[in-house]
TrEMBL record:
Bias kind Polar residues: ranges: 1-11
Catalytic activity as recorded in UniProt: ATP + H2O = ADP + phosphate + H(+)
Family label: Belongs to the helicase family. PIF1 subfamily.
Entry keyword DNA damage: yes
Sequence ranges of Low complexity compositional bias: 24-35, 119-133
Cofactors: Mg(2+)
Gene that encodes the chain: PIF1
Organismal lineage: Eukaryota, Fungi, Dikarya, Basidiomycota, Agaricomycotina
Entry protein name: ATP-dependent DNA helicase PIF1
Organism for this UniProt entry: Ephemerocybe angulata
Amino acid sequence: MPAASRTSQSGLARAKNREDQWGSSNMSQPSSSQPIDWEPTPPKPKPKAPKRDNAARMKFIEQALAEAAQKPAPSQPTPLTTSSVPNKRPSTDDITGNNATAKKARVLPPGYAKQSIVASTSPSSRSTPAAQSNTPSSSAPRSKSKLAGVFLSKEQSHILRLVQEGNSLFYTGSAGTGKSVLLREIIKVLRMKFSRNPDSLGITASTGIAACNIGGQTIHSWAGIGLGVESAEELASKIRKNKKSVTRWARTRVLIIDEISMLDGNLFDKLAKIAKMLKKSPEPFGGIQVVITGDFFQLPPVSRTQPKFAFEAELWTESIKHTFNLTKVFRQSDPRFVDMLNEMRFGTLSQRSIDEFKKLSRDLQFNDNIEPTELYPMREGVDSANRARLRALGSLQSYAAMESGTITDPTQREKILSNFMAPKHLELAINAQVMLIKNVDETLVNGSLGRVVGFADPDDYAKGDSAQDASGVVGGGSMNLTAKKGPSTGSRKPYPVVEFGMTNGTKRRVLVLPEVFKFEQPGAQPSTPPAASRTQLPLILAWAMSIHKSQGQTLDRVRVDLKKIFEKGQAYVALSRATSLEGLQVLNFKPGQVMAHPKVIQWSKSLSTIQDDL
Ligand SMILES: Nc1ncnc2c1ncn2[C@@H]1O[C@H](COP(=O)(O)OP(=O)(O)OP(=O)(O)O)[C@@H](O)[C@H]1O
């Protein structure tokens, strides 16, 4: 079949289509030539009006900032200060809005909020509902607003329905098949279901970053098991001694675990046993409904020896009633690219794909000066690459985050905060390449790439004093800023003005203001102050990023040097972040570096014979 006539599907889906024995018998499994029609199921709530939302948020933050600017500096670490205004800093309470004394200091003109990025959201909210979260970065040739238009596919809707009906299940799918989009929807629906008893829902992931992305916590911390090295019995008695943990287990009715591929199989068994012991029930997982997702072809559990995957756990089959494989690939629309990635996923590359990957070593040229993000296997590589590029730009502006929260133990708080995407210290300079780490509206989303073009005092920006250069600016009007050399001379601290590339090749400039990233204890009331929070600009340097951090991201421009790849699944995770071949550069490609774990390949074969009983 000619590639162009096929819809983008994972290789496993095609295996199923050929063998007709894949996934749920009730699931609508498209043939490889049939596009899946998407049904809005259940009917989506109207997306929030971002302008109004932003305006309200803007007003809120501005009030807090203005209030804070009038206060003497509290004795906490310097928050959000730039080198030019070291002492003017808001308190976290002001910014989070928990301080009732925050007064309105000035009113911004109506257009201000329209193009400024300000919000008071938790990390979870940047990854909230499907309708708000998924249009990836700035420059891919995507014409439609996906934020407003993401409807669950039939496959996704089917799984959602089964979850709502109380089934324990595991769903997988290759990179970009919408596992995260579905999970966010599941979380949303379950949150509504348990709105009166929020403790009934446990939202967890195998790693801190993944947990942060869904507004949850690590499974270790949720379960109260520390490192979880003891036996299940010892861990259960440890939990019993901790009132909080024991109550959590007792109240939980549904447990979500994301990024299951990185959870050790032995730990899965321990959790399943602990659940039975604490719930005093012989039922699978002590009667707790488990909703598990991840892709075992991506990053494996951290292990010095042979990893034991969760699917190898003794109690896996008993705990998971249904297994589903999402088949429709959303991230990439080019069927050829989807094929190449799937071959890579299984570690079995055809000569044609090898040749195609080798061709991707060419330089990527874009006329908006935004370079591909380099993905590195190790964090040191990321830091040094970003630092070197930044230093070359000269005059730096530094923004120290302000941290707060009800957790007073500094080690514990630090551990939680270390999983926030928003950095503790952010240094920027004119021309720095940055990535937005939250969703703002249809065109500015988590993953959007841009370049700092100046620094502006929010007052000047609001008044339009800085407006001089309107060329190639989207949504500009009187608010556009010209790149300035160095900080503003205005009365307030300068914030970065970032120019983001848009899908249609145009640019959009925005003033980026700080916001609050929060970690909330499960079941906490909305009025309760967060357990840990960090106030920081929603930006990270984006010349380079770790593969680990990139898991879950969708990137339009990616450069990967495969020479340094050391782990199975790493090359696949890195390359599958790209939305198109045009936006992907691959250096040092050697077929031998593409490794899939033999145990996962084997398991996936047995998976394709599973007949779901629904
Ligand atoms: N039902 C849908 N309709 C339209 N787009 C979708 C849908 N589901 C997912 N997408 C889009 O597909 C892309 C990938 O989705 P998502 O990140 O959820 O995939 P994933 O399976 O979690 O990927 P990975 O395993 O690589 O992290 C996103 O840009 C998202 O917006």
